[in-house]
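Throughout this review, each integer encodes one residue's backbone shape. One record appears below.

===
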Amino acid sequence: MKVLVFGGSFDPVHKGHVAMFRKALQIIRPDVAHVVPAYHSPFKAKSPTPFNLRMQMAKAAFSSLGKNIIFDDCERKRGGKTYSYQLVQYLRQRYVQPDIYLLVGTDCLNDLHAWKNPEYIFENATVVAGRRKGFAEHKADFKHLFLPGVFPKMSSTRVRAHILASGSVPEDKVPQSVGHIILKNDLYGLEVHRWLKAHLKPNRYLHSVKVAEQCSLLSDIYEVAAEKAVQAGILHDAGKGLSGTELIAFCKQHKISVPFFEDICRFEPSLLHSYVSAWLAKHEFGVKDKEVLAAITEHTLGSLHMSTLSKILFVADISSKDRKYKDAFVIRTLAAQDLEKALLYAANRKLWFTIDSQKWLCPAGIELWNHLVKCAA
């Protein structure tokens, strides 16, 4: 009896999943195929997307591919983490002498030896791999077969980042039936966009989207997690809808610590929006990542100890594609080549904008400039 098993977080299901599963069904022709959404993937933090919604997305995406598909909630029943060898054990107990085919992407195939108890998998299942463009294949020394063709280079992580950055579901990557579930349940940051639209002016909301998109592009170049970069970008101006008086009151009410607070309140209270935005990210939207919160806090004035993420956001904020002044293009181009040089250029422009506007220069901005000049020397 041929048993095909396709497990994954499916958070969300994308068209790459569908294409690979369809081809596996055509080539292997299993008697039964199990689709097994992970309750808690051994390789990732537990998904905030409820299991039942990920199961709904799997059913919506895969149900039309065949009548012999079982949508299996065995991992939810187990609770905790389930390793692939345990999934193979479960199928061997469920069927009499099953011929098990474990469907994975090429990237997983190359890492299988590092999985828990891989020998059990190799002895009791045939690994089926779908080639993805751009992944280098290693010679496998266990039972395996490659599906014909090359499958789309997609990832659920990138789909989530796209939705969080843009507020829309990418139709070229997500099946329409899955998109409906995402929209209906406000998944992957769609609720953030509703909040921002309600609290920011349209041009400020557009700026937030463009900054998030720029952060996503730079995260690829400088090897920062895309979801973290996008999260910082989309929320960096969440407090920008408040007036100067309201920002001051908000900081006092919530006891937000701000360097040079009295001077900022007197001369340029709009600078407080960075600190208020970080507070909103943490308390309104549940952001716990300290690096993301620091990047939001530092995106206007910077700091002497900026992470790569903070530098990305600082540069993206001043050079996003909605910025129409000449130097925005220069900074964007420079950022794609050398983040440190782009940061220095961006800090320079911020200082000159402030001077040309005859506004007060915050000491934090001056400290950043002097620090960057010393580092570049």
